[in-house]
Design brief:
Layout: H1 2-21, H2 25-37, H3 41-54, H4 59-71, H5 75-88, H6 93-105, H7 109-122, H8 127-139, H9 143-156, H10 161-181, H11 190-206, E1 214-215, E2 229-230
Helix pairs in contact: 2-3, 3-4, 4-5, 4-6, 5-6, 6-7, 6-8, 7-8, 8-9, 9-10, 10-11
Length: 242
């Protein structure tokens, strides 16, 4: 009987402590970021999956897994993960943007444009969405539209280094096309040159984590723009993050 009471006490203690030891979805995602920064993608993905186990509607975890699957070249798996996340939040701008880019890389440009247009319509002031729009048009060899999109991203976030770099690269491509063909059409050998450049840039392209803090895109209850600074890839601070 004595041992039975002791066992019951231990079980009650375990039930009390377990919730305190359990991590939240955000904590798992933060842990995933640590592994991702070390390029240990498998462990990062495991952490993001733990986040989903903790909260199956935590869409940022789906987005991060999809990003890493893209880096690993597993576009089909990335797409499946995005579909799962978009099931819970069909208007998640970053998931829509990444889905558009994957479709573009699969040469499904019509659907790619549909998704990225939806993303920029939902959040016209989100620089990351405009950056993805530029990448999609770059995949399509439509460099004029690509440059316009990259410029918009930089206009919204002057510290967006990746977008600034793509403005320079795309401008060079357009100038070369003008010199070689007298126009900015979508034909010519410059396409292959750009693809080679893009392949070396993929690792940074898929990563939308910025180290420079920018003003939150959220709107306060008073209708004013939030004044907090954030480095979150969504562009929102902790309070306004969707």
């Amino acid at each position: 009987m004595k041992y039975k009471h002791l066992l019951i006490l231990l079980l009650l203690l375990l039930l009390t402590i377990t919730p305190l030891l359990a991590k939240t979805a955000k904590e798992w995602v933060d842990k995933g970021f640590e592994y991702e920064s070390k390029r240990d993608y498998e462990k990062a993905i495991k952490m993001y999956k733990n986040a989903i186990d903790a909260d199956y509607k935590y869409i940022d975890a789906y987005f991060r897994i999809a990003l890493l699957k893209c880096k690993q070249g597993s576009l089909e798996e990335a797409m499946e993960t995005l579909e799962e996340g978009l099931h819970f939040n069909p208007n998640h701008v970053l998931c829509l943007s990444l889905k558009g880019l994957i479709l573009a890389k699969q040469k499904n440009f019509n659907d790619a444009i549909t998704y990225i247009e939806k993303a920029t319509d939902l959040e016209p002031n989100n620089p990351v969405a405009w950056f993805y729009k530029g990448l999609i048009y770059s995949e399509k060899f439509d460099y004029s539209y690509a440059l316009s999109s990259y410029n918009k991203a930089v206009e919204l976030d002057p510290n967006f280094a990746e977008a600034t770099e793509m403005v320079k690269k795309t401008t060079t491509i357009i100038e070369n096309q003008k010199a070689n063909t007298g126009n900015t059409g979508n034909t010519g050998n410059t396409g292959n040159t750009y693809n080679n450049t893009y392949n070396t840039y993929t690792d940074d392209t898929y990563s939308t984590t910025k180290t420079t803090a920018t003003q939150c895109l959220g709107i306060t209850q008073d209708g004013d723009r939030c004044k907090r600074k954030t480095t979150d890839p969504s562009g929102y601070c902790w309070q306004h993050k969707p």
